[in-house]
């Protein structure tokens, strides 16, 4: 009986893995992308319900918090010392803790027709956080609500569009920037950058 159960479980696992790979491949194909074309993977936050199948990217750099994982090799990145890391001329990864201590957000600049897009995970779970000041994640727990709000404001000030963790992508409206204090926030950032 145990052997039959193990064999069935092994078959089920193999089927699930193949179906996940097929779903992922089909989803990427709709965007004319293959697994081989993906240079790196960014984990915006470590919620088991939001991530999985990292094994499909075993030989790709996987960024989580301030570390980079490739297979079993782990390396600290400049995110240990700096607030952001450039992945390319148009892609940056920012430390944006709040929902968890290890949240990351990805800024993609110069996206045709959109400007700068931010992929933020649960830092900004939906547009409701900005439009109604209602955080749909509050019941699941938030590591630090004040820091989350600060980092959400920073992203609002830097992005034209936001891809939230639990909603449709949305345009950053002028009143969102006003509520976030973007003029003051970006002026402070400019002064800090001049001092460095």
UniProtKB/TrEMBL annotation:
Which residue ranges does the record assign to the Metallo-beta-lactamase domain? 18-166
InterPro entries in the record: MBLAC1, Metallo-B-lactamas, RibonucZ/Hydroxyglut_hydro
The record's SUPFAM superfamilies line, in alphabetical order, gives: Metallo-hydrolase/oxidoreductase
Its name, as the record gives it, is Metallo-beta-lactamase domain-containing protein
